[in-house]
Known about the structure:
FAD/NAD(P)-binding domain; single chain
Amino acid sequence: MANSLSTSGIVSGRKERQDLSDSFSDLHEPLSDHEALVAADRCYFCHDAPCVTACPTSIDIPLFIRQISTGTPEASAKTIFSQNILGGMCARVCPTETLCEEVCVREVAEGKPVLIGQLQRYATDTLMAEGTHPFERAAATGKSVGIVGAGPAGLACAHKLATLGHDVTIYEARQKGGGLNEFGIAAYKAVNDFAQKELDWLLSIGGITIKYGVALGEDITLADVQTDHDAVFFGMGLSGVNALGCEGEDLEHVVDAVSFISDLRQANDLAKVEIGRNVVVIGGGMTAVDAAVQSKLLGAQDVTLVYRRGKESMSASVYEQELATSNGVRIIYNAQPMKVAKNGKAMSVEFAYTKTKKGKLTRTGESFSLPADQVFKAIGQNLTGAPEALKLENGKIAVDENGRTSAPKVWAGGDCASGGDDLTVTAVAEGRDAALDIHATLLG
Length: 444
């Protein structure tokens, strides 16, 4: 590993190219045919399966696993895709350890669940490798729907509407689709450009057009989309980043973790991604863990993730926290940033220890400091650019149980909408369900 002072002033901890290739290989190697059959054989095929209830998209998990066990993974994949058209990506990034696998009867009885996520990947990869699409479009309805955002919610909504016979146009601000799946997921979770391959496969249903480089509020307005279409769906995600609210966060090399992850995902050469020797990540969610682990994989010598509350309060699962520590990331709990300071080329972050008393976070009066070449902020995102015509609730677009907004014939889902968890699988469910309501409204 080479350590040198880069031209940007960051003390580099970059690894050699071959080391990087090994470090960013697939987090979980796909199951072989034999391994899939063995894993499927552990399923009890419960009648009232708790795993189905725990799945935000309500996939019939016992059925798709039984189909694998009988040697028909293509049929298994269709069972999955009928509920979750992005089942391939969700199999890679969904926190199954806190959803379906957590309530698996095998987990409760033996502490070792059926490998639901890996079996889902096995089935979906098998069908997608054939290059065929399991669904066909219904007869044309003559209706069109405009969708803002080509992320998981928008794509799930678009696909369902297309299968029902509607024409769909997606307006995407970036030059690539996929949203969070393309720009916000750790590189080792979705290797070999899987997000774009999945997008191309999804679009093969037909009837969906994506217009890239078209930003809401700059190139189009809600009124424009309403004029051109019979209904509108917002799946624009969250583009704003929450501030630390402390002195020095505007210093150079204090950046948001989302941008770091996005830049890393889009890099053609990981060896050129700038990384410091001492990295501090502030936050407690999946983004914080992804930023911390990838910093270590890039070659940072010391990576510290600091979270203001206790371990049990972190939104990142225990599995994700253990993934971080197993990769050499140090996690400090109950500490809050007070100041980012710089003395010449040296930078440090001052933290105050905290405690929770009667549900309220308070400082203990003790503090400590960490040296840092880079500081990544991962304390959440917020909605920006929502049309004034849409009512907001807790900073997100207010929707009812069907995804309807306050504006007529306008729906929303995914991270930009109120309600559900900020997960890919939840976004897919909300996009799919909104599409069904849009379909019923347009034809009703």
